[in-house]
Amino acid sequence: xxxxxxxxxxxxxxxxxxxxxxxxxxxxxxxxxxxxxxxxxxxxxxxxxxxxxxxxxxxxxxxxxxxxxxxxxxxxxxxxxxxxxxxxxxxxxxxxxxxxxxxxxxxxxxxxxxxxxxxxxxxxxxxxxxxxxxxxxxxxxxxxxxxxxxxxxxxxxxxxxxxxxxxxxxxxxxxxxxxxxxxxxxxxxxxxxxxxxxxxxxxxxxxxxxxxxxxxxxxxxxxxxxxxxxxxxxxxxxxxxxxxxxxxxxxxxxxxxxxxxxxxxxxxxxxxxxxxxxxxxxxxxxxxxxxxxxxxxxxxx
Length: 301
Known about the structure:
Blueprint: H1 5-12, H2 19-30, H3 32-46, H4 50-59, H5 66-83, H6 88-101, H7 108-129, H8 136-152, H9 162-176, H10 181-196, H11 203-212, H12 216-222, H13 229-247
């Protein structure tokens, strides 16, 4: 197999009808490391919306049980990518995701925004740091994949195209990004988790390097001092160099899923998809959960 053979296979598929297969090929074969980093960043971005950051702080899932929350999120999303929406594992993952979100009064606007981060952030990351840019087939398939995902979650008003996802994300961040002390606590806990995966003496350096990969809007929302132009340029150049090196390597012959990532540490003896995720803490709703349209998501039960 040659380096671009899988891309040619992707281009022979239909980006709408075959969206889950194209997305799986991109995530598990073409860009597993990049998608892991990009989806971490996608979720991290959502903390800068105070309504989201405050809720996450109140649940304490990302401050007191940061590693477990990270692992559970990655593994639930991973189950759908690996096995498909219609599989037993995929249906179970969707049920767990829906039951967790329905336990809290989360606005449709926030839910749509989070969905947008999953579509837009990986495209921007891979185009900046990947071994190649995403093809138009992959971009269209990613948008379609998350349209399916959003329908299973009962989210109304899902964007129809990648460009609509991108416009919604940019407008929402411009209108809603802002300082919140509780959201900053969630951000700090997440950064602490990420640097904990490496030897302790490297922690200050790795924290600075992580901040260098954040855009100005995120740094401003969390009130982090910018690392400096020279440091930022050095870190970004290093990540781009990694992408160029990957381009010279043979293509991956076996899929690599999130469950295989070294950052997943909570389940050394294995796990059941049905056991993943959070369980609501009494008294944290703030107000009753608004009813959602569950006709799509519950049909997989």
